[in-house]
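Re-run with default settings, no changes from the original entry. Doing this only to confirm the output is reproducible before filing.
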Amino acid sequence: MVQDLRYRGNSCYVLVDWCNVDQNRKPIDKRVTVLTLVEGLYNEAVYRGDKIVFIPTFPDLQLSS
């Protein structure tokens, strides 16, 4: 899948993971992963908690994980 995105010219994509839930079905490990294409390979940046997520294709957008 990642190779398909690279060949289609996707320079950046975002994965939102809501892993594991507690007894109240609330997410325990939530994270946002931003993958950015640099010299033919994707660099990965993982954001958790209150960190501001930086997405290069939308630099003015401010989201928190």
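The CA atoms of residues 12 and 56 lie 7 Å apart. The longest helix spans residues 2-7.
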